[in-house]
């Protein structure tokens, strides 16, 4: 039998191990197993002083088992039938005789494994019980099981039933079965960059002889991940240039009329980005462009001018928004900006006017019929909507431009469904108000051209942000006084909470109680406390994700009209809500929000002629990482700088997001922050590869990796 990376583990390992690897980690083949890399390495010389451990500290200690005692006990679980359980207490000691207790629950087999006299490494978090330090269910690596060279012990992500040492044994078996592996990376690139061969890199990352050997292995495997990913993106970008799209000339009657009415000058950035988009829409190949614009930078205006260019020459534009609140906001603001240019077909409207239609899931049957008819006949040149635009029966006369707002909130199928409603591949403009670090844009949106709007339109004022300690009543009284002062001056405010209320969970809830922490503050509770407390006498409104669509729309319209003084809301207002008269915001439990989320939230204020104020209320103490995040948000309004900081503090998988699970399965070592140089260099190499050999016929092994990511595991990349 020929054994290779595609060989199923059941053919080479024992049944029990194979089942556990499959169930716990989704590992099915030798390739899967060898691609399950260690997440850390322990040097045999690491021997911290057992007498100087700190509670909460993650430690690795080298010690000897002195005793192991199993004790029966009865867990106290209210409302559940009493049952007996077992706790194993293992006493270990270092070479100076200092001891530490390890505690394992309901793992009786460990008593036969951790016997007196055995030495090993024990890895876990220091806790305390009855005044005594201990490690709860730590990982352990006995010397007799190491079978490693060079003093570096690999530690693998595992489970209680599949600990690291068992994975290590399986990996070592697999390595012995595939000593000679074909290298998928193009030989010329590998040689020029001085990279290890694939087989050697796998051996070194699983059994490193030194830190230097480990570094060389990681570099080689990172390069493979980066080059495969960038080649997928470059190839897709190249393929899109071969598609035929309808060209729409620059300018046009309705666009010229709109520009002539603008009461202000476009910023230099809006002019530049607008010109780039206009030129691409005028070409016979579909545009694929990502428009990044920090909060308040005027993205909607840029997108509207692109839509009008298409409408001016007989096409239609669709704007897909993730929520009804945002879709309604876009519809109102675009209709207001166009004025009578949005009244096409009505008496007295300019000849070049069109209609702006809104279609959401909450539309009545009559409203839906009217909008569908306007879309089908082409009377509606601009169509704004939510997922309702994707439904069967919504047919366009001539869809020429698709604008997707907050791209990361949509799945692949949804975007493709809308694009499929066009007779020819439409031009695509993806907008996001969430600043994206350059390496993330290259990795997640690398098949799109990228534009950035970084300057604020004239008249916008900076937003002052301060952190307010929740436990200091003097500061809290002053915070509520500032909101009252803004309202008394004729302006409006927001109060943002992380949770809706009661025991239900909703999309705009942010977590729950964590250990001894109290539950997050909820809008349904806070609004009543404010009504009878610090904001008594003011008109308060409530907005959250569980309200029906009509109520959400009523509240937003009332707030926009100035009928509500203070809007108490969840993150449903995070993007797109535009009320220029709103100048102040209090974010409660601010530490429960992410950096980029806080930046988006505060972008709801200071959108008019008056300065904005954002107060981040938190009970976390100074010196903690959570407080440092809040201080960082307070220190700058530069969204791109905050996005880089956000990337530093978050896991790579969180940044790529659940929608990009295909990339996460392929990108295991590459860091979007730390490996920017590799990502950029891989982009250049990928471009040269595709230019020379578009189908990669000269590199079949590498082409197979690219095809794998581009198909079943990389659907998220399909934007065209």
From TrEMBL:
The keyword ATP-binding applies. CDD domains: DEXHc_RecG, RecG_wedge_OBF. Pfam families: DEAD, Helicase_C, RecG_dom3_C, RecG_wedge. This is Probable DNA 3'-5' helicase RecG. Keywords: ATP-binding, DNA damage, DNA repair, DNA-binding, Helicase, Hydrolase, Nucleotide-binding. Residues 475-648 form the Helicase C-terminal domain. GO terms for molecular function: ATP binding; DNA binding; DNA helicase activity; hydrolase activity. InterPro entries: DEAD/DEAH_box_helicase_dom (IPR011545), Helicase_ATP-bd (IPR014001), Helicase_C-like (IPR001650), NA-bd_OB-fold (IPR012340), P-loop_NTPase (IPR027417), RecG/Mfd (IPR047112), RecG_dom3_C (IPR045562), RecG_wedge (IPR033454). One of its GO terms (biological process) is DNA repair. Residues 280-453 form the Helicase ATP-binding domain.
